[in-house]
Amino acid sequence: MILYSFLFALLTALLSLFIRREYNYIRWILYSAVLASLTFLIYTMNGLWGYSESFKLLSVGSVDFSLNFKVTPLSWLFSFFTTGLSLSISLFSIVKNRHEESERSIGFFWLILSVCNIAIFLSADLLTLFIFWEAMTFVSFFVISPGWTKSFKAVNYYFILSILGAFAMLVGIFFLYSKSATFNIESNIAQLFVLYELNSPQAIFITLMFVLGFFTKSALMPFHIWPAEAHSEAPDDFSSYLSGIMIKYGLYGSILFLVPLFVFISKFSQTQPMSNHIPLFSHILAWVGAITSVVATFLAVKSNDMKRLAAWSTVGNIGYAATSIFILSSMGVAGGIFHIINHAIFKTAIFLSLAAVKYRTHEREMHRLGGLAYKMPVTFLTFLLGIIAAAGIPPLNGYASKWMIYQSLLSGRFPFLATMIFLSSTGAFMYLFRALHSVFLGQLPSKFDDVKEVPFLMQIPMYILMLLMVIIGIFPGTVLLPVNSILKSMNMEEIKVTYTTMYSMLSSVDAPIVFLVFAGSFAFAFILYLIGKPRRHVELLDNYTAGQDPKEFGLTREMYHFALKFYEPFEHMFDKYPRTNTKEFYDSFERKINETGSFIKKFYSSSPRSAVYIFTLSIVLIIIYGWLVW
Amino acid sequence: MVNIMLRFLFAAFTSIIMGLLFMGIGRKFIARIRRHYAGPFYQSFIDVIKLFSKKSISHNWIMDFGVMMGFAGIIATIIFMPIGPFNVFSQMQGNIIIIIYFMTIGYLGMAMGVAASGNPNATIGIARALTLMLGYEIPFVLTVILLVFANNSSLLQVMVVNQQGGFMEWNAIRYPFAFLAALIALQGMLGEQPFDAMIAPSEIASGPMVELSGKFLGFGFLQHAAQIFLETGIIVNMFLGGSQNFFIFFAKQLALYLLTVAVSGIFPRYRFEDAVKFFWMAPTALAAIQLIIFII
Amino acid sequence: MLLTSTNEIKDNGMERILNFFRKKSLWMLHYCTGCGAVELPPTMTSRWDMERFGMGPMATPRQADLLLITGYLSVKSLKRVIYTYEQMQEPKWVIAFGSCPINGGIYYDSYSVINRLALYMPVDLSIEGCMPRPEAIIDGFTKLMKAIEKGEAVGYKKYRENYEWYKANQRNVLERTSAVLKEEA
């Protein structure tokens, strides 16, 4: 069933290559239909825990290598939400990509990517996971950079880091396979745990390999730079897919593999160093998450490109989720999963609204925009609700998961982690408001006087996402009850939650009441507003200008829009301190590789004879090595 | 349901009335520091009624919406705060994390409303306010974490109950450094001098309020009044033992407010990036020291 | 000539009740090009303590109720004053300060200074003197408050009713500010 649906989707992708460019919208309608059916298929798998399928690839001797798929609560939740969200993005793309030049390949690869996406979540063993992981990396390379020079430069960071991470993961997988002779995830975790007791450095090395694989994909420190490059240069609608969905694979892998391992260690291990009742390793990873979120926040405050800002915000949110996951309490894991889902929703909303802005204005630098809220109210509302959720402000979905993260951090007694998360959360409010102001509020430049709201078909996914944010905010149980079954399947203690109420050790929150209180207060404010004398609307330039008439003064609306260098004094606060620039580090790394490469190339291609010598020599060395080892 | 609504209205009106009263008394107090008399203590009520009786302008629907949302956010936060013995909801007695996050709606609403006016002065003010917020939230959150650990609960009501039994049980006495940090943070939260760079009247024409007229400015006034009530109320609940009596509760709040007013009366203004640095140095260190002492 | 008199447009009913609050909370915007501004700081601070009456300085015209023209007005600054006045929200009042806005004062024969402010804006109250002492200013304020309470200080309505007349006057005098040598486009 799973496999056939994959083949069906791939076939559709292939067929769609024959559609001519004038009929682009038919292609996207086709994709939406496929994604809708996939979403429905996954929805029907709800509750079929343990349903599995396998497909034999090849046998070497007596060993079979096969693709295995299995439905678990974890994989179901992730695949359902991500496929649903990609459906909404593809609805958006129907109109958006009507006149795109390089669109044909994007759509084709994108559908393959959606298949890889589901396959990663449904894969039952490490080999299947790795195969689709690699496929996803390669395919996404072509979507991010459909032949554009700028995005090709950007995608290099993404691609090389992902490949290196994936190879690190492969090393880890083969190390484990050599010990356990199986790719099954549970038995490998048990094997690794045993290895921790027997040969701890080796086990730490293997875990580190997995951590590298997962962290490069999820852009945690020190691999945090690629989203800002890749997400901002990718096609606009695909940015939402990258940021909402693809960046979550690393965290999914962590929940799948690392969390059970660390939980095992914290429960049974006698030899491993502990701190705050969790393994030290896990505690360090939680700190990495927190530091990532703070660093990403400061970098987001500095950026002037709206897509780049949203990309940094993504990194920050991944940081929260990682911190929450790696403190290993069931509240923390549940909060982390919940935040991943919520982030997927609100970040898709944010990126779609930015894509809508770019669709109409073709601008990305924030100081060139402004005042679009008066022209594009639906887009504005989507973005507003998106940032309310992203800043963790009640009553939308973001606050529910942030509340859980704080509860887990506080009840687990991690005061400084909680402070760092809080710092980046307040910073998030700061840069998100900056984006809201610079793009949607303030003065409307006169060149955008004729800008209209995006077509209705593009508004539909925005309405859906807004509705989702509100519904999950009011009824957090819609996501948290499935999360509870995940905890159960991971043998962790379930959290106490109903459809409307979340409980923790420290307090409880009744989400509909929170919503009603806000609605009631708003009604109260509205009554006061009606009591006051009526207001009238005036033009944007009828403004306080110290008595000077703007027309005579030559003041234009563009000049009266304060958006460039918004937080400049704040940035200057850090001028004194030496700056470590990760991007420069990677760039210098790249230069070194280039130098080495050209040196070798010079040596290698100086004459054909030397090439033959080297080839022969390496063959001989390999044979000798094989002989000695065997 | 009717019961809840009545309690809601009671909390809303109490906060507004007491907040405006505090403002008036504060103005009187600061006038006495500067050796003059100022208006009557009910001056703020007159101001608000006058503002609502004036005609006003707005630039677009977002400005209307944002200003209302700003006020609604603060009122909604007050609903979750225990006011003396009074709670609107019995089961959520002042969840401090909800309170901190709910306060942000107020800031967001106001910021959105004034940014929609399109005046750069307003936006500069907002940028300063948000930067300052990044400063004072850190020491404040550290003290909150300390109290959550100490009481093993994030409910303000539980903190109040644990402080019953006289003066010496107050958290202000038990955790003096944290109290000091919270007081400094309170000064920043209320935007009093030396942390009032966002409303510098002659530099950026009163910042966020530059385009507010009539009832919009009235909403700004009401929001500030409710904010005074809310923030002093939180500190009273956290550190000064709350109270089982409305009047004692209000008296504690007033004392706290007069303290901030007295400080603001004698200080000039910090540049706001210096203010952020200050918040990250002195009060944060105080709160962190107290936290470390507690953990050890 | 003016179309309406003060008696026709006096405040009545609900407005009279609200006027009680308005007179007790006059927020002012001072237009400080003239020398009269120097008398305002003592009036505001502890010596004469204007805040007793609920008065205080405000930063922008949107917030203010009362426009103080403190001294002479050149024609160019008149333009700014009118722009500012029109940005203020009703009800709003204008106080002309010192002799210059009444009859030109010592600048009565200057080519660049207007002589009578009341021709261009509805002045609710003039405080004479060169300069008026703080006592005189406070006396003027109390007079304005009484007028507001009785509903007689309705200059803003006068301005609205006779908009064309005021605009014509303004146009006549503002022509002087237009550039003599026009730039070639």
Please provide a written account of the structure.
The complex is a heterotrimer of chains A (630), B (296) and C (185). Chain A has 3 domains: 1-146, no CATH class; 148-507, no CATH class; 594-629, no CATH class. Chain A has 24 helices and 7 strands. Chain A has helices spanning 2-16, 24-44, 73-96, 103-122, 126-144, 149-180, 185-198, 200-218, 226-233, 236-244, 249-268, 280-302, 306-326, 330-361, 377-390, 397-411, 415-440, 456-474, 477-489, 511-531, 550-553, 568-572, 582-604, 608-629, and strands at residues 52-60, 63-70, 274-275, 278-279, 501-503, 508-510, 535-537. The radius of gyration of chain A is 26 Å and the shape is globular. Chain B has 296 residues and is mainly α. Chain B contains 12 helices and 1 strand. Chain B has helices at residues 2-33, 43-52, 61-79, 96-115, 120-151, 156-162, 171-174, 176-189, 201-204, 214-239, 246-266, 272-295, and one strand at residues 56-58. The longest helix of chain B has 32 residues, at 2-33. With 185 residues, chain C is an alpha/beta fold. Chain C has one domain (6-173): Rossmann fold (3-Layer(aba) Sandwich), CATH 3.40.50.12280. Helices cover 37% and strands 11% of the residues of chain C. Classes of the chains: A mainly alpha (630), B mainly alpha (296), C alpha/beta (185). At the A-B interface, helix 15, helix 16, helix 17, strand 6 and helix 20 of A face helix 1, strand 1, helix 3, helix 4 and helix 5 of B. Strand 7 (535-537) of chain A pairs parallel with strand 1 (56-58) of chain B, so a sheet runs across the interface.
Which terms would index this structure?
heterotrimer; A: 630 residues; mainly alpha; two-stranded antiparallel sheet; 24 helices; C: 185 residues; Rossmann fold; 7 helices; 11% strand
Topology:
The complex is a heterotrimer of chains A (630), B (296) and C (185).
Chain A (H helix, E strand, L loop, with lengths): L1 H15 L7 H21 L7 E9 L2 E8 L2 H24 L6 H20 L3 H19 L4 H32 L4 H14 L1 H19 L7 H8 L2 H9 L4 H20 L5 E2 L2 E2 H23 L3 H21 L3 H32 L15 H14 L6 H15 L3 H26 L15 H19 L2 H13 L11 E3 L4 E3 H21 L3 E3 L12 H4 L14 H5 L9 H23 L3 H22 L1
Chain B lengths: L1 H32 L9 H10 L3 E3 L2 H19 L16 H20 L4 H32 L4 H7 L8 H4 L1 H14 L11 H4 L9 H26 L6 H21 L5 H24 L1
Helix pairs in contact in B: 1-3, 1-10, 1-11, 2-10, 3-4, 3-10, 4-5, 5-8, 5-12, 6-10, 8-10, 8-12, 10-11
Chain C lengths: L13 H11 L2 E5 L8 H5 L11 E2 L8 E5 L4 H13 L5 E5 L2 H4 L21 E3 L6 H17 L4 H7 L1 H12 L11
Parallel strand pairs in C: 1-2, 1-3, 3-4, 4-5
